[in-house]
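I am hoping you can look over what I have pasted underneath with an eye to the fold:
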Amino acid sequence: MEIHQQLLTTKKLFCRCPAGLYSKEHHAEVLRHMRPTLSEMGVYDGCALMEFKTKKEILYFLNRSSVCTYEMDDTPPFPMNSEALDIAIEIALFCNCWIVDELHIARKQYLDGSIPTGFQRTAIVGINGRIPFEGKEIGVRQLSIEEDSCREVDDTGHLIKFRTDRLGMPLIEVVTEPCFETPEEAGRGVRHIGRLLRSTGHVRRGLGAVRQDVNVSISGGLRVEIKGVPRYQLIPDLTRTEAFRQKALLDLREELKGRGLSKENLKFSAHDITEELKNTCSPMLRDALTRGHKIRGIKFEKLSGILNRPTQTGIMFASEIAGRVRVIACLDGIPNIYHTDNYPEYPRSHIDLRTLKNTLDIKNADVGIVVWGPAADTITATNEIRDRILEAFDGVPNETRQHMRGGLSDFERILPGADRMYPDTDHPPIRITKERVDKIRASLPEPAYEVEKRFRQYGLPEDVIDELALSSRIKLIDRLYHEKCDMKLAGRVIGQAARSLRRKGIAVDSIADERFFELSTICSEKKLQTKIIERAVRALAADSKTSISQIIDEVSGK
């Protein structure tokens, strides 16, 4: 797992712009094109080369309140935000990591447009950590501090648009070892780590503040990354589906071998078939011709039936190909390919199918694929279709996939490798002294899982433990327990009643601990009913001066 969590700082990581200042307004636009650069070892990253093939135009929306010239790579970086680094060290200590003696900034290449510079500044803070979890440990390979990317607004064809307000906000990335053995365990593990991060009180909350990348592999397969999963609840289904997908791709590889096929002897050919299908009855193809687009067909010998093999629930291998065409050739209208294994039905579709088979000389054992769009894009698409078919002989390709509904996923890009990393010569190393680490260690809060364990021993109602363990009421709960209060009833006061009223917009968080302590003590002594307790908490939120006894008398009708 790779857990990306925004840090709760006032400023961004490498400039002095405010962090967390979101807006839909913009005052300027910047148009950019990306190109790959060589790594430190003089090698191009495969993912960067793939992104370059998309020929994307990238439009950035700039708000003067939240960005400066640094984000546009027109100014060198400022010194790293010291507040953010202290939080990163704190979290690394929480994860029992070894803290590095010297922080070195690296550039991680991103050509998808999400960062205007084409790279993200990142640095490893801690390594070799471990987190107690369900009687064993989650291994933490490394913990890094880095800057967040832009927010995507729209991605259509060869144009992608981004807002830059989130760009440069500090976040940490927690990379675990491959220690989760079931989909459900993976989901629980990410939840466990998320609660650990929240117990610091120094991370942001809300949609987009935390994102998970789920890395899945099975025996015989390769690592596949499901990118940007926003909620841990989605992880079990995504993990399970990806495992079955990889098994299906491995079975497909064996099927190809059983047919006596290999990369070396696979025969295929591609042709422009625009003229042959000029009288097509397909609405999709007729629309393409009206726009002046081209239609290309590609024939693969002895691959009949392959495209109809299921890889995910309700999804066939043809979708693996369509995903590549959508992303790399930018032919994002769906459907974006037809194929002879399952040709679509429309009026006179049999005539189009016969014409296609005759034009490409497709026999019963062969399969034909049709793609349409601007001429250059259809050529790119044809090459990607060929490459994806050839990858089927290897089984599972290394790739990054985007999550979809129902636990499904679709192609996003080739999986980046180490070749996208290189040193950042714009920023000096940062020494992390033992004194700095010891000072942070001395003020570490208690991890959420330790608080939860103690609250269960107290006898608090199970449905309030998770919430209260991350609240500001921990010392209050401890005090109530040591004062011999009825903890189940205290949980109803501080947990259940307060939670119910909070959802109704009542400002229960403004109630002082001392007032809650007195209310819980009296409710425990008098064994008050739940409806009386909720009325008392509501009154307490609205009145900070009247005595607790008087409030209880009033809400009890005395």
User: Anything to note?
Assistant: The chain has a mean pLDDT of 93. The radius of gyration is 29 Å. The longest helix spans residues 235-258.
